[in-house]
Amino acid sequence: MPEFLERRFSTSSRYVLSIVSLITFVVSKIAVGIFAGGVVFGALLPEMSFTIAGVFVDSFWVGSVLVVVLTGLYTTLGGMRAVAYNDAVQVVVLIVGSALLTFYGLHALGGWSVLREYCGSEMFNLWKPLVPAGQIATWAPVKEVNEAGVIVKQAWYFNTNFPWLGMAICAPVIGLWYWCTDQYIVQRALGAPSERVARQGSIFAAFLKLFPVYLFIIPGLICFALAKSGKIPGLTEAFNSPEGGGSQAAFPIMVQHLLPSGIRGIVVAGLLSALMGSLAGVFNACSTLFTVDIYEKLRPKASQAQLVRTGRIATVVMVLISIAWIPVIKGAHGLYDYLQSVQGYLAPPIFVVFFFGVFWKRLNAAGCLWAMIIGFIVGVFRMAVDTPVTMKLKGFENGYDHGSFLWIVNNINFQYFSILITLISMVVMVVVSYATAAPDYGTIKGLTFGTATPEDKAKTRSSWGKQEVIFSCIIMVFITGAYLYFTG
User: Fold this and answer.
1) Per residue in 466-478, pLDDT tens?
2) β-strands 136-138, 143-145: how paired?
3) Do residues 316 and 350 share a domain?
4) Which residues lie closer than 8 Å to 65 by C-beta, 6 or more apart?
5) pLDDT tens for each residue of 176-194
6) Which domain holds residue 259?
7) What is the pLDDT of residue 345?
8) Both 347 and 323 in a single domain?
9) Are residues 73 and 219 located together in one domain of the fold?
């Protein structure tokens, strides 16, 4: 992906994207993968702890380190081929195991109608109002609570309950960035033998991506309902206990308390394999980006052995930084909120330069570079504002002074702030591009829709047919059906 930016815009754009991608890998993918591994071990093996030199190491940190070490070993020995084989095996195990978990969970709870009764319409609504019922919405940056601590009045852009406007605009931005421009994902398609196979693989991946809604989100709702009903005391205790992992450990908690022992082991193996597969893919992407886009440019005469060694060292350094970043994740409202907010702050500039760069041939290198720089500065600024509050550092236990500028920034819904970054990046890219010289269309031939040659169009057209269109339409029907059903 950095190479595409270099060919479409400039070498500087490539460097900026590579650096920001590495930062994104550290604070989201690597750190989140390690954290998730620790949560799984903490929920399933809480007794796995020991003391070293007077320092107590609980099962969370034991699991985090084990996941990193095991992933590093098989990635180093097997490379991207090992990652591909692991993904192919674990996806089957995880989907089948999750389906069994859903079945056992609904059976223990009493059925789908009982699930809806315990969860209520709120948890089945993807289109939540701009401001929750019972609250007064304002444009002024205020947040007022009653004696019970319940919010009664607040700015509509302070509402953090995933309002429909944020979901409708922010979610596609993050989704298009993740699935279409992220090196971690795209490297799998780039490994296909032809454009047709890459397209078919992407469609199949989209089909598989339908399953998490029913096999991960629904089990989470089932776990909440079971904990609320008290039908399985051990599950209720683990779900409500921070030591047991809490709601973030819903999946392993259900595995532990619902599945028979034989199936339980297979599903746990699939879950850990998925985590390690995700980390392994990131490790490969990190190594590739650092060696090809940074180190090799600085040391063009470096041997292949030096490049491999440097890539491994860089990956180890990024893993260590990610481990140091885990306390920030632990202090967040939840793993999902943290992951979405970080991606919401860092993804918009990348989305803008790729999306607009492909569809709008007039945009040039200067516009791309400044859009990324300004967008990333705004995103990192928001992260810098949020981090002290998230970690509850000294002096920030109660956040910023009420009504101050930083307090307002910290309270704006991350989705709305992500939309703001997107708009800023768009404006900067267009204004700077039209304020400077147009690009040489000959040098970007075949890189945008406006400069695609008849040969390019014919090649692309030959890579898909009736079969691809039918399956794409089927996937769209399922997605539309889900959005129509989950309305409360």
Assistant:
1) 899 999 999 999 8
2) unpaired
3) no
4) none
5) 888 888 877 787 787 788 8
6) 16-126+202-329
7) 93
8) no
9) yes
